[in-house]
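Consider the tokenized backbone below.
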């Protein structure tokens, strides 16, 4: 069998959950166009679709509200939380809290998954200096992480990016989740594998690095010379390129248009102009397009999230995709165990 570095192009399993880039640039969740779903449905509906093939998110919403309020009164979780919060990155806090909560095997797939979603949202909300306790009936998950006085545009923007983060085929973190699940391990352990894998800057961490890059330039000219220098030095510009899409990431225009719509002051306008300049240079010099993380990072920043919460928000969206893949892998019940090409020394005595 031919070796493919990074398993590029290798079909490593079967799935009914999504197609990524199948018609060139499309993304479909169980047959539905994900971009259209941002216009017609909420994250809760999409989460229910991905887990249970049902586009009605009312059960997901009910479970989420229940678990979210239970966490407020859970002294064990809150004590652990206090101990680790000041010294760990929020991604590590999420990994630890999800792991600590664990799971009971008496629950349905949707119920189990929602408990994890609520825990992730609860951790993210705790970093907000404002009160986040009021849950919106429509955009429940988005509202749990935003201040109570968030505008309807802000709720909708976060809801959209959560939908776009929800599922993406056999990406690295989902594959890690499936590998763990394939050993018949539990859902929590498998999701923890996913969280650890998403943390790296070539995957979920790209949105943090992209915004740090944008913020490092004082104006558009500075961005132009800075990015050209990085390209000359063969450095990667985070938030550009994609392992599967080769023409465009269909999620990027949705998040970009929200950034444009939410511009609230001169500083936000300048950062958007700097981002557009980087986008223009990457197209001209490298024929590379922005992926969801480039303008996605900027959007989360316009929604007032600290940079270190961007990847956790990715987790908040993606946990349903990971869980769906876990259940699919468990049903398939095949241990994932690829072979390696040996390139070490010959036999030695
Ligand atoms: C996502 C990514 C890993 C996809 O990788 P890939 O399609 O396998 O492409 P490769 O990493 O093999 O790169 C192919 C070429 O394009 C260049 N390239 C790819 N992405 C680049 C980027 N973001 N900035 C600059 N150059 C890039 C590589 O340097 C390489 O150039 P070379 O042929 O001269 O060596 C890659 O584009 C990347 O590292 N992007 C930045 C991280 C990121 O945004 N990740 C989030 C993904 S949603």
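A designed sequence for it:
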């Amino acid at each position: 069998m031919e070796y493919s570095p990074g398993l590029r192009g290798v079909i490593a399993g079967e799935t009914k959950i999504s197609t990524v880039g199948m018609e060139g640039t499309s993304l479909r969740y169980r047959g539905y166009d994900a971009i259209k779903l941002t216009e017609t449905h909420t994250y809760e509906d999409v989460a229910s679709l991905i887990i249970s093939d049902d586009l009605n998110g009312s059960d997901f919403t009910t479970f989420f509200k229940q678990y979210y309020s239970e966490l407020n009164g859970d002294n064990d979780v809150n004590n652990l939380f206090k101990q680790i919060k000041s010294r760990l990155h929020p991604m590590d806090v999420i990994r630890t809290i999800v792991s600590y909560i664990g799971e009971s095997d008496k629950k349905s797939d949707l119920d189990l998954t929602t408990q994890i979603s609520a825990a992730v949202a609860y951790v993210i909300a705790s970093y907000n200096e404002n009160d986040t306790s009021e849950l919106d009936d429509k955009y429940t998950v988005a509202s749990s992480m935003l201040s109570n006085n968030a505008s309807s545009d802000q709720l909708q923007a976060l809801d959209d990016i959560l939908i776009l983060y929800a599922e993406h085929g056999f990406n690295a973190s989902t594959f890690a989740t499936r590998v763990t699940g394939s050993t018949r391990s539990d859902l929590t352990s498998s999701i923890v594998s996913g969280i650890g894998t998403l943390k790296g800057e070539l995957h979920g961490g790209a949105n943090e690095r992209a915004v740090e890059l944008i913020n490092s330039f004082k104006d558009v000219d500075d961005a132009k010379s800075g990015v050209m220098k990085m390209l000359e030095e063969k450095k990667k510009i985070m938030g550009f390129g994609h392992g599967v899409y080769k023409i465009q990431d269909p999620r990027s225009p949705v998040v970009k248009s929200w950034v444009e719509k939410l511009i609230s002051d001169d500083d936000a306008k300048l950062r958007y102009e700097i981002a557009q300049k980087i986008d223009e240079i990457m197209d001209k010099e490298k024929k590379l397009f922005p992926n969801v993380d480039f303008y996605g990072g900027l959007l989360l920043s316009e929604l007032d999230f600290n940079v270190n919460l961007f990847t956790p928000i990715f987790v908040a969206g993606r946990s349903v995709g990971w869980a769906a893949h876990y259940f699919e892998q468990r049903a398939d019940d095949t241990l994932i165990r690829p072979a390696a090409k040996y390139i070490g020394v010959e036999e030695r005595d």
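Residues 310-332 form the longest helix (23 residues).
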